[in-house]
Amino acid sequence: EWSRRIIKGWYGVAYFHESQEPGQGLIRINCLLNSPDMSADTIRFLLWHEYLHLYLRQGHTKTFYERERLWPRTTAADRELDTLHERFGIQYW
Q: What is the rounded distance in angstroms from the CA atom of residue 39 to the CA atom of residue 51?
């Protein structure tokens, strides 16, 4: 789901409860990214990133980054996310 307002500090977040199976939970994407100026592939990458948190049930570990890099266009998506402040003219962080 989309956040209800722009949240400073994150693009996406994954929530899960210990009682849920790996891969189960809620992914919330910052509504800042709900724009036709964002590529669909970068949004899909961000969903992959957050899903990995749900599936692996861990933060940004070595294993997490190894799996994240399985996404075919990781570098392009990272670049797009890293330059949002320039494209949207905002100080996001």
A: 19
- pLDDT tens by residue, 47-64: 999 999 999 999 999 999
Distances (CA, A) of 90 to 2, 8, 18, 23, 32: 19, 10, 36, 33, 10
State yes or no: pLDDT of 38 exceeds 80: yes
Give yes or no for a contact between 64 and 71, defined as CB atoms under 8 angstroms apart. Answer: no
- The tokens of 14 are what? 């994954």
Angle between helix axes 40-56 and 74-82 (nearest 10 degrees) is: 100
47 burial (CB, 10 Å; 0-12 / 13-18 / 19+) is middle
pTM score: 0.88
Residue of 14, 28, 35, 25 whose CA lies nearest to 81: 35
pLDDT > 60? residue 93:
no
